Amino acid sequence: MKKVGILDYSIGNLYSVAKAVEFVGGEVYFVKCPEDIMKAEYLILPGVGAFDRCYSALDKGGYIKPLLSYVHAEKPLLGICVGMQLLFSSSTEGKGSIGLGIINGTVNLINRGNNDQIKLPNIGWSRLIFDHVCSMHLLSGLNPTDEFYFVHSYNAYCEDEEAETIYSSYKGLQITALVKKNNVYGCQFHAEKSKDPGLQIFKNFLEV
Amino acid sequence: MDKPRIIARLDIKTNKLIKGIHLEGLRVIGNPVEYAQDYYEQGADELLYLDSVASLYNRSYIKEVIKDTAKNVFIPITVGGGIKNLFDVEKILRAGADKVAINTAAVKDPSLITQVAQTFGSQCMVLQVDVKSTSTCFEIYIDGGRERTGVNALEWVKKAQDLGCGEVLLTSIDKDGTKRGFDYDLLKIIAPAVKVPLIISSGFGDCHHLEPLVDLQIDGIAIGSALHYNNCTVSSIKNFWKSL
After folding, report:
1. Which of A56, A147, B121, B208 has the least CB density, counted as fewest CB within 10 Å?
2. Total-model pTM
3. Order of strands across the sheet with A77-80?
4. Rounded CA gap, B87 and B103, in Å?
5. Is A120 in contact with B71 (Cβ distance < 8 A)?
């Protein structure tokens, strides 16, 4: 069984992420100290709530440097929701904060323009925009009609030429749904809350 | 209106699935985890667990229900009923829930809404609003529909949603468990005032009850009795919506 570390650094529902990984055959352990990061064969960075608080918690826990070393060693990392956003350079949420800077780009409030009929947070199920020629491994076995559960007010705007992005649409607004740079993956949606398609994402991640 | 999320609502007493009418007269239906699994397999978008006697019994029952559910059910879970403080919220989230629905404690201390939103994220903080119709207005009730407050529902919703909640869950005590349709008069007044996603509950009995909702901005529909008593399935509801 593949050993999957889930970083336990902030308040939130880690239990469901663990159950999803176990459901697809992974062996879960919770990473509660920086030294345990490198031991993971696969590492998941969850995150809920505000970006600035999450980054601060990572920083206080001493996780920033070990995470960057882990990525430098090209070991697989999956960021979920705010965990995906943290991969980027910075966010304007709350008091504003830098991120891990693994992927160039900034995280900003979903831009509704003048349309305040569009409610935030974006809460609900959306499809990803891709077709059968898409080669991103994380999408193996998935159909363009599959829906994923999104709940967020902020969106990651990717400016990294080495990264691949897959988008979704929220009332016509472009949302960054999936991102990949080398062995680092991020999903804005909650893969652990997206029924079978979500479980497939975990399955594919464990085959990276 | 875009398609609403279909949310299976399960009222719980200790570890049993129950259902009342007008939030009282509890009838035991069965094992909530089994029903939740069934609704998940039917295609439900979310689950809503409401603990009807949380203030009277200790909370360990609901945590076990959440944990058992989350082992095999991979959709968002909201839990409400007697949640009073951040400590309660953290315990519920750790057990496998994603969001908490708070009514009484928020009415008594509205700053709790902001505290929950800032600590756990606004997406976690669902403001539950239980409403009964009086001769002059729609009034907020607390404590599981047992205590009236004299507070106007529209005024409360307008004030509370600015305190940081991510969603509003609106329940009509008059219609609860009746399966005779939603309180459309209530919805016409409240829905336009809600700037965050709005979930409505109470009164769904058959698919035709969805028709008057088309012109309103409703983001989720929580259904209890009609599912538990097998009047419809999640898929029949979703298919009906597609045809509207």
Report:
1. B208
2. 0.94
3. A26-31, A2-7, A42-45, A77-80, A184-187, A173-181, A164-170, A122-129, A147-152
4. 16
5. no
- Taking residue B56's Cβ as centre, other Cβ atoms within 10 Å add up to 11
Q: Which residues of A touch B5 (CB under 8 A)?
A: 123-125
B9 DSSP β-pair partners: B48
What is the rounded distance in angstroms from the CA atom of residue B1 to the CA atom of residue A172? 14
Which ipTM value was assigned to this complex?
0.92
d(CA B120, CA B89): 9
C-alpha to C-alpha distance for A84 and A166, rounded to whole angstroms: 13
Residues of B in contact with A16 (CB under 8 A): 70, 74, 96, 98
CA-based nearest distance A73→chain B, Å: 31
Q: Give the relative orientation of helices B60-70 and B86-94 as an angle to the nearest 10 degrees.
A: 30
Q: Tell me the per-residue pLDDT of B87-115, one tens digit each, with 9 for 90 and over.
A: 999 999 989 999 999 999 999 999 999 99
pLDDT at A57 over 80: yes
Cβ of B70 within 8 Å of Cβ of A16? The answer is: yes
Nearest CA to A92 among A73, A111, A71?
Answer: A111
pLDDT at residue A101, rounded to an integer: 98
The Cα angle at residue A175 between residues A114 and B158, in degrees rounded to 5: 50
**Average pLDDT value for chain A:** 94
Element (H, E) at B111: helix B111-120
What element of type H or E holds B64? Answer: helix B60-70
* In contact, A120 and A150? CB cutoff 8 Å: no
